[in-house]
Design goal:
It is built from 23 helices and 10 strands. The protein is of the alpha/beta class. It is found in: Cell membrane.
Amino acid sequence: MRPHDLSDWTPPPRDSAQPKEPAQLRRILRLFRPYRARLALVGLLVGAASLVSVASPFLLKEILDTAIPQGRTGLLSLLALGMIATAVLTSVFGVLQTLISTTVGQRVMHDLRTGVYEQLQRMPLAFFTRTRTGEVQSRIANDIGGMQATVTSTATSLVSNLTAVVATVVAMLALDWRLTVVSLLLLPVFVWISRRVGRERKAITTQRQKQMAAMAATVTESLSVSGILLGRTMGRADSLTKSFAEESERLVDLEVRSSMAGRWRMSTIGIVMAAMPALIYWAAGIALQSDGPAISLGTLVAFVSLQQGLFRPAVSLLSTGVQMQTSLALFQRIFEYLDLPVDITEPDEPVRLAKVRGEVGFEKVEFRYDPEGQARPTLDGIDVTVPAGGSLAVVGPTGSGKSTLSYLVPRLYDVTGGRVTLDGVDVRALDFDTLARAVGVVSQETYLFHASVADNLRFAKPDATDEEIEAAARAAQIHDHIASLPEGYDTLVGERGYRFSGGEKQRLAIARTILRDPPVLILDEATSALDTRTEHAVQQAIDALSAGRTTITIAHRLSTVRDADQIVVLDAGHIAERGTHEELLARDGRYAALVRRDARAAVTGAAEGATEGRDEGRARGEQANVGSVVPQNV
């Protein structure tokens, strides 16, 4: 896997490697492929509506040239009814095509949103460590939302207007080819202008969407609970408001530029098209005065009516071209996410384990965050086996690779050398469902959804009964607290669980893992951020969770790991020492030094606690009483 490369969502430089418009248009059209039948029906309705609407000027011609001059009342009534019928049919066809095309467009929007979300779910952890949450949200909400008009109506509008233009031009040629040539003289110029306007708006749209993503990221970060706490405690509320105002000001400028781009040129097209009837009357009058072929009044009125009917779809067709150019920028940003490579994938024929015993093995494991870089590997030559039901503690200084090692078991990252096994099977060969059921992770960073306590626990097991939830909470030492709340298990935990303390959130996370009941448990410094009293309560919950499971503990406080079957000391990605607690203390090496450091910190904490209160001081002192685990020379 290549975490560094995958985490870089920024699109490539806009050079020759950028997808060309024809290829991009073909890809957009492929989005509509599953709905070919419905689109074909829309095409039929569009064609029928165009043919019916073109018939009206011919009926008008017959009224003016035949029915009225000859006083044929019956023919006049029939022709008038025909004009009414064409209007009714055109409206009915329009409503039906709008219903079908909007439904198809919304399905395509749904496919895009779901596709991007599914793709992001498959991205490695490194992608999210380097990508702002607001950027991801903006791509799903703003970019896909911005394409709604294009996806739901532009395709139908394009077909409808194109059909109307073709049918109208054919009808105009049938009436008088000379007037038709005069009417279409400036059409190439109009097409050229609309293409230039489209390219200009596409460039501005790309900038605008990037600015919207930046503003969304600012809102997400600064208006979260953590962001508000940080801003207020640091006295930066005014500064954050000023920064947001500047981001918004830049967006205002881009929105104005986007709206006004090519506006005068497109208005010129509208003025010229609106003036065309006058030109037609003038041309007909000149032809009559110069003894040219006479044009009947009915033909002239019918032709102008057709030309007026041509004006709306022609201008709409040119505007649609501009809109499509603008939308290409949005599609490109979505396709950038859909095209992100996913290296952590399930094999074509994955291994499914009906029952997992829980033996975990690290065989000559090597891992680099940047496989092609020159930096030293984060892990190098790790050889460790944890028997089923056994316990392994991994300790070492910050940056030694402890957490990275734990991430390899559930495949949050993949090894760049060697392999990690579960019951002797390479985890890369397992299907995702087996791995997810087999490995549970409790980390220092506890995440809770803005939902009820029960819903947060049921995330691990959606079909869990109330009794199972309560039993898991009791095992995690959190049931009594939940029961004491006015709404009990229906209590909302709040944004990121801020209605609960750190220790309570950890115990909720442990209850969630107990409910899932995995045979392998990863504890990634699950108590390092807690005070000693809370740590003691959480540790009791962890002990209940660990019973009978294969447990890998990433430890910061060594008092929590002395009972592990095996302790591994990492240093700069290598195993510096391994053995039991007593064996490592007897060697008086790196582990013993870490224990002495931990003991000094605990004694200092006990001394500080004594000044705050005898009871609190006694609790801290009990945690600091490590005489039985510290070498005699401490």
